[in-house]
Write a structure and sequence with these properties.
The chain has strands at about 5, 10-15, 20-25, 30-40, 45-50, 55-60, 65-70, 75-80, 90-100, 110, 115-120. It is mostly beta strands. The strands form two sheets. Strands 2, 4, 5, 6, 9, 10 and 11 form a seven-stranded mixed β-sheet that branches. Strands 1-3-8-7 form a four-stranded antiparallel β-sheet, with no helix packed on it. The termini are far apart.
Length: about 120
């Protein structure tokens, strides 16, 4: 069993930056790890993902060019660097891991963290 824990959320002004971290409780091999977010009244949506094999990255159109996903396998950690934050970015951000083939759907992922809150002020 693998536990995921997010950290790094907080309050930031529009245009500012944050870096989120997600650490696994033990080393493991996943096909893909991803970040999702969920704002009040909205569905949980895909943000970014990275493959275990070659670190290929994918991004939602809404964050491409502003967010960067990366991983450090030695530390069992995946990161989400968030730059140029906008008023529409606030949400609870979740990290997730998929053991098999996975894309942008939340049901592709088997392991989830508890989430970390990101708030953007004007």
């Amino acid at each position: 069993q693998v536990q995921l824990a997010e950290s790094g959320g907080g309050l930031v002004q529009a245009g500012g930056s944050l870096r989120l971290s997600c650490t696994a409780s033990r080393p493991f091999s996943s096909n893909r790890m991803a970040w999702f977010r969920q704002a009040p009244g909205k569905e949980r949506e895909f943000v970014a993902s990275i493959t275990w094999s070659i670190s290929a990255q994918a991004y939602a159109d809404s964050v491409e060019g502003r967010f960067t996903i990366s991983r450090d396998n030695a530390k069992n950690t995946v990161y989400l660097a968030m730059d140029s934050l906008k008023p529409e970015d606030p949400a609870v951000y979740y990290c997730a891991a998929a053991l098999g083939v996975a894309g942008r759907g939340r049901y592709d992922y088997q392991y989830w963290g508890q989430g970390t809150q990101v708030t953007v002020s004007s």
